[in-house]
Amino acid sequence: MDAKFLDILVCPLCKGPLKLDKARQELVCPGDRLAYPIRDGIPLMLESEARELAPEEEVK
Questions:
Q1: Cβ(28)–Cβ(18) under 8 Å?
Q2: What is the pLDDT at residue 6?
Q3: What are 1-34's pLDDT values in tens digits?
Q4: Alpha-carbon gap, residue 21 to 11, rounded angstroms
Q5: Is residue 57 over pLDDT 80?
Q6: Which domains does the chain have, with CATH numbers?
Q7: What are the counts of helices (DSSP H) followed by strands (DSSP E) for the chain?
Q8: pLDDT at position 2
């Protein structure tokens, strides 16, 4: 994913910054503790597609 593209993407719920988790191919919102999947290089920025992070999951 292009770094410039990542700089302009924000969480659709809280409008906060996102962190890229390359290993899981997800964009993570630390504030809402949601992870949005990236499929075929396209981030799916829908709340219905996001998974909640488990309490023990660390936001990288």
A1: yes
A2: 84
A3: 677 888 899 999 999 999 999 999 999 999 999 9
A4: 14
A5: yes
A6: 3-52 (2.20.25.10)
A7: 1, 5
A8: 72
User: Taking the CB of residue 9, how many other CB atoms lie within 10 A of it?
Assistant: 15
Distance (Å, whole) CA 45 – CA 32: 13
Residue 42: both structure tokens together = 């396209």
Long-range contacts (CB closer than 8 Å, 24 or more residues apart) made by 53-60:
53/28, 59/19, 59/28, 59/30, 59/33, 60/19, 60/21, 60/28
Token couple for 6:
């990542």
Closest CA to 13 of 34, 40, 37: 34
